[in-house]
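Known limitations

Structure tokens in this collection are predictions and should be treated as such. Users comparing against experimental data should check residue numbering before alignment. To illustrate the layout, the record for Alanine racemase is reproduced below. The input appears on top and the generated tokens appear beneath it.
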Amino acid sequence: MKEIASSWVEISKRSFSNNLNSFRSILRSELTAILKSNAYGHGIVPMIKLCIEEGVSRIGVNSIEEAQLVRKIDSNIPVLIMGEIQNPEEQKDTLSDPNFWIVFSRPQTARILSSFKPAPKLHLKIDTGMGRLGNRGETLKHTLGELKEAGISLDGICTHFASTEDVLEHKYSLMQIQNFEEAVSLAESFGYKNLIRHACASASAMLFSHAHFETVRIGISLYGLWPSIQTRLSLNLTGNKNFRLSPILSWKTRIVHVQNHPANSYIGYGSTFQTSYPTKVAIVPVGYYEGLDRKLSSNGDMLVLGKRARIIGRICMNMTMLDVTHVPGADVGSIVTIIGRDGEESVTADDIADRTHTINYETITRISESIPRIVVD
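Generated tokens:
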């Protein structure tokens, strides 16, 4: 890693394969690997390549730009584009791909996309209780009528759960499944039969096997992270205590400077931290610009030579200070683990999320795209 000056992210191929196999062991349908938002911070290009190597049959993304990255690597794999497409008429050359599955809410979008030659596959979004994108109630009837009148073909129909990972009691999610099935029946009454149905993401795929339909969209847990502690507990309550996930991401850097400070020295901006004993301070070249949450200031740890080193003082834009007084051998060039395991110690995305009052999704997706992602093992 000598050529990497600041920090780097390591992606474990072995752990990724294990996570895929965990899902394949419980799924009743095909798996769509969700690689949106730079593959949840893991690096979309290396993750596309890993998915293809592992025989994933379909990739899901948020945007046209992400779909184009997939196409540069594989010219045929089906790509599910889930984000709302603005001004599709301006993207005709890109979107004229019969292996693009495009989720839409507005019939105007479907009119434009269906006019392309070749046309992408169209998947109608149903709002079953998320209150975000999609159609419901009378609006759904109107949309289906408009599509039928215009002679527009549908290949798929989909929805998204609102709160599966937030609760132990899943009454609302079960209601959403019922709403979705009613929407599918309504679509059939308009002549849209044998549609590809998809509703489940990571948490719901673990918990609602009867809603796997034709494909499931696996995102956060593809990367070895649980959607929430509630999801893990809910799965245990079903009797499945053998489902395993392994985080595939480690984020590392190196010490670039070491200083010894006497007791009562102030460290960092605002002089918010004062040493209480003679302190050996290590500087690492990672800060909030790189994606390290500033709320970890004097409130987090990194790992140095297998030991925990406390973050002291305010996290800077491109630097962070660590107390390595108790870490023999810590010096310039020593590897520092920001997220991951070093010996018997570990710092997880969940640990950081807990300390910064957020979710593991945000912790990993905020890691700067400028940081290299490297596939290991």
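For this record: The CA atoms of residues 164 and 170 lie 6 Å apart. The two ends are 15 Å apart (CA to CA). Please report discrepancies through the issue tracker.
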